[in-house]
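so my prof wants the structure for this chain in the tokens format not the other one, which i didnt know existed until like an hour ago. anyway here's the sequence
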Amino acid sequence: MGFSEVIGQAEVKNRLTNLVKNNQLGHALLLLGKEGSGALPLAIAFSQYLVCDRVNGKPSASPSLFGEPDPVGSLEPFRVDACGACPSCRKAIELAHPDIYYSYPVIPKKPGDKPISTDYIKEWRQFVQQQPYGNVFDWLQFIEAENKQGNITAQECSEIIHKLYLKSFESRYKILLMWMPEYLGNEGNKLLKLIEEPPEDTLFLLVAENESQILPTILSRTQRISVPALDNRDIERALQEHTQLPADQAKQAAAISEGNYREALQVLRHTEESWEELLRDWLNAILKTGPAAQVKWIEEMAKLGRERQKQFLRYFNHLLEQAIRSACMAPGTLLIPDNEKDFVLRLNRIADLSQQQAMVEELDQAAYFIERNANAKILFHALTIKLYHIIANRTKAMVT
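here's what i got, hopefully its the right format
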């Protein structure tokens, strides 16, 4: 994957290539970007750029014996993207370059296992090929994790140390691309000495979404590069190019996505219709049908598993954000689907702006506790009570 295949992010691409051009590349970079911003595709493209033969001035073939110009070598002008054609690029495109290592959250394949990333390398290659803008939920579903929570294990850290102390096979750099270092527990401290004093030409390339969930000891040893949300126009162009979506639909999906390309794809697939029904039942239980209905809803919610629970909370937050926008914008200017628009209007009837903000904060906190393995039944019971008290001083309008 070259930079040309990464949606938008021209400034970040320019910054990364300039680090190489100006010989300012550190030994540990952290690409920090929210879901759907393209931080992972950027990291994959940058790793390919670093091993590309043409970027590194290596001839792509033996010199000609018959008077043709010599292959491209060290005199070639500075490149701003990998060539995509040299042997190193072809291996990097297949995620099979021997000097690029990948680390990501995994689960045990059977009880008692100590899983490492290479146990899932085949699945990883397929996932990146199919869903380069996917999130951890998508990845865990891809490897059929069901309700299991992914982790980057202590065994994985030992494997990283072993690999990075080996000599490089082909390229100048040995690169570790770690996706979601938030899933490193305290065992990640095993990597500190290696990050602080790595072998020559070793690069740690970390890709994260939430800075606050990364071990501070690792965070302090990295050079941070912020990856902003995508521009709506870039998402719009990408949707038209990759999905052949009509311009007007691409524009609407881009507006809804809020800079998140994955979200734009989700909008097109209508995957959140089930969340709407689930949310409607929850609000009805809170506002009208009472404790028995609440307990039944909580029992059903607890069965979904942590990742789907977080997806649901994210969807509710999305609707609350749209409700806040609709209250502040002129009628007719909110670009969301009709079914969401109806729901947003009802949310505005049961809660004012300050209440909606309080609800957003509670949902964010609940998602955080789910990531920390909180008991789902207790968490959603407490959240149900909190939401009731937040909106209790307004007229209890039924959400039907």
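also thought this was worth mentioning. The CA atoms of residues 226 and 380 lie 33 Å apart.
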